[in-house]
Amino acid sequence: MEITKKTTMGEMLEYDRGIAVVLMMAGMHCIGCPSSIGESLEEACMVHGLDADEILANIKKYLETK
User: Fold this and answer.
1) Rounded to 5, what percent of the chain is helix, strand, coil?
2) Fewest C-beta atoms under 10 Å: which of 10, 50, 60, 61?
3) Distance from the first to the final alpha carbon of the chain
4) Which of 32, 17, 24 is nearest to 50 (CA)?
């Protein structure tokens, strides 16, 4: 699976639950919130005032180390 800024939070977490740690370390503590599941990474970053490109790069780094 290729994760992009358009990938939903639910799709990412279904693919690899470890991504939740990356997101929480970035300040997204709403991972378990039912409404966040349908948001894209880009939308969630916008809500939290985070840089989607930076978060995506961190997720990809995490996945490369597995």
Assistant:
1) 60, 5, 40
2) 61
3) 14
4) 24
Q: Token digits for 4? A: 């992009």
Q: pTM for the whole thing? A: 0.90
**pLDDT of the chain along its 66 residues, tens only?**
899 999 999 999 999 999 999 999 998 877 777 777 889 999 999 988 999 999 999 999 999 998
Token pair 């639910």 is at which residue? 10
Three-class secondary structure of residue 8 per DSSP:
strand
What number of other Cβ atoms are within 10 A of residue 50's Cβ? 16
Token representation of residue 52: 């989607």
Domain boundaries, the chain: 9-64
For the chain, how many helices (H) and strands (E)?
4, 0
Quick check: helix, strand or coil at residue 1? coil
